[in-house]
Amino acid sequence: MEKCALVTGSSSGLGLEITRYLVESGYTVFGGSRSGTDFEHENFYDVELDITSEESVEEFFETIREFSPQLDLVVNNAGICEMSSVAETTLSQFEAHLATNTIGPFLLFKHLEPFLIKDTTHIISILSTAAHYGYPNVSAYNASKFGQLGLLESLKKEWKDYKLRFTNLFPGAINTPLWDKMGSRFSREKMLSPSDFMNVFSFVVEAPPTLQFPELTFLHKDGFIE
After folding, report:
1. What secondary structure letter does DSSP report for 112?
2. CATH code of the domain containing 53
3. CA dihedral 157, 159, 160, 165 (to 10 degrees)
């Protein structure tokens, strides 16, 4: 039986790289995003999803149910990040980070349970070193990622009887187009490349089902940037 995967934030960046890798690996992938993507594959379903809206999340799962009653792999990837000092961060910006990076995963998991496969479903969350480590000028992002990690820690215990695999990935900065919009002073040469990230991601996905990697932190060889 073919394996089915869900990927949020599948339209661009790491989400699109993950989607391509999974369909090429034989998965049927249900990708959720607000903007959609030009990527096409017979095993890829591009589904509209606003992760901050419970109605949209419910409709997303209703669409998946038309094709599959269960999910082997869930990739919790959608997220936003903006840089500004605490004083310059507006309330709406802070709330937007919480809505996408914390409330969004909450809504995803709230409606995911009927699709879980006992002893099988693997939930991979793309967090960040910012879920463990405070960086200057990204207070909204830090707070939202710390919040998402707390959500996941609670969920692991709540769903322990399902005997699922949870993997939380904590990559350092990754050189994606996201940084083009942030006007960052950081050296892009000291960031992980998307291929670096995919090397770790594919390692986790392809590992034997008897193994789990609860937390993986990985950085460019030059370490943290700040």
Report:
1. T
2. 3.40.50.720
3. -100
